[in-house]
C-alpha cells in the first residue's frame, strides 16, 4: 500500500522521531480534494482547508489531533437557493506503525498505517467533514420550499396561491359555463 505521493494531505514523517512523547505542531493550508462533502453541500475542490494539527509519537504509532476549517457551497434541499457556509471539525486518528494483529480483515484494511514514513490525512478529513454536514441542508430553518404546482419560491412570496383545482369529473361542464353567455 502506498499513499498518493503528490497529495498535500500526505505528511512526511522522516524527520519526526518515533520516540514516545515526541510532538510537533503544524498549521497548514491545503487545497480541498475532489468530492469532499455530500451531493448538495461540499467543500469546492481546490478551495483552502485550514488545518491546525498536533502530531504525537506514541508506542503504537503517531496520534494526530487537531481541527480543520473550510468553506462550504451547495444548495437548499427545499428551495434550491445557493448556500455558503463554513465547517469546523475536530480530527483525531492513531496511525499505527504496523497493522495490529487479530483484527477482522475488513477492519485491518481500514486501519490507518504509517507507510514509507508518511501518513495520509485525506480519509480522516473526508470522514470528519462528511459526518459534520447536515443530511438535508437548508437555507434557513423555516424554509418554505417551492410551490409544488408552479415552482415559485414560497420564501419570497409566502402568500402565493393558486385557484382551487377543478374536479376532473366536472371539467367538461366548466367549458360550458364559460361559453358565449347565451342561454336558451
Q: Spans with pLDDT under 50 lasting ≥5 residues?
A: none
Distance between the termini: 90 Å
Total strand segments: 8
Shape verdict: elongated
Structural write-up:
- The chain has 184 residues and is mainly beta.
- It has a domain at 10-132.
- It is built from three helices and eight strands; from the N terminus they run E-E-E-E-E-E-E-H-E-H-H.
- The chain has helices spanning 105-110, 122-132, 171-177, and strands spanning 10-12, 23-31, 36-38, 41-43, 48-57, 61-75, 82-96, 118-120.
- The strands form two sheets. Strands 2, 3, 4, 5, 6 and 7 form a six-stranded antiparallel beta sheet that branches.
- The chain is elongated and about 90 Å long.
Give the tags.
six-stranded antiparallel β-sheet; single chain; two-stranded antiparallel ribbon; mainly beta; 3 helices; about 180 residues; elongated
Brief synopsis:
The protein has helices at 105-110, 122-132, 171-177; strands at 10-12, 23-31, 36-38, 41-43, 48-57, 61-75, 82-96, 118-120. The protein is mainly β and 184 residues long. The longest helix has 11 residues, at 122-132.
Describe the protein's topology.
Blueprint: E1 10-12, E2 23-31, E3 36-38, E4 41-43, E5 48-57, E6 61-75, E7 82-96, H1 105-110, E8 118-120, H2 122-132, H3 171-177
Antiparallel strand pairs: 1-8, 2-5, 3-4, 4-6, 5-6, 6-7
Amino acid at each position: 500500500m502506498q499513499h498518493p505521493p503528490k497529495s498535500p494531505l500526505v505528511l512526511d514523517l522522516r524527520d519526526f522521531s518515533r520516540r514516545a512523547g515526541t510532538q510537533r505542531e503544524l498549521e497548514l493550508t491545503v487545497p480541498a480534494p475532489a468530492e469532499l462533502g455530500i451531493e448538495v453541500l461540499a467543500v469546492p475542490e481546490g478551495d483552502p482547508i485550514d488545518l491546525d494539527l498536533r502530531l504525537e509519537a506514541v508506542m503504537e504509532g503517531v496520534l494526530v489531533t487537531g481541527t480543520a476549517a473550510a468553506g462550504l457551497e451547495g444548495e437548499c434541499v427545499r428551495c434550491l437557493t445557493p448556500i455558503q457556509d463554513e465547517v469546523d471539525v475536530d480530527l483525531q486518528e492513531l496511525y499505527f506503525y504496523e497493522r495490529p494483529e487479530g483484527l477482522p480483515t475488513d477492519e485491518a484494511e481500514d486501519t490507518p498505517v504509517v507507510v514509507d514514513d508518511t501518513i495520509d490525512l485525506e480519509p480522516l478529513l473526508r470522514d470528519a467533514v462528511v459526518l459534520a454536514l447536515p443530511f438535508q441542508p437548508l437555507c434557513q430553518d423555516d424554509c418554505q420550499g417551492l410551490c409544488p404546482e408552479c415552482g415559485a419560491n414560497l420564501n419570497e412570496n409566502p402568500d402565493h396561491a393558486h385557484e382551487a383545482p377543478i374536479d376532473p369529473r366536472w371539467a367538461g361542464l366548466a367549458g360550458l359555463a364559460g361559453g358565449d353567455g347565451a342561454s336558451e
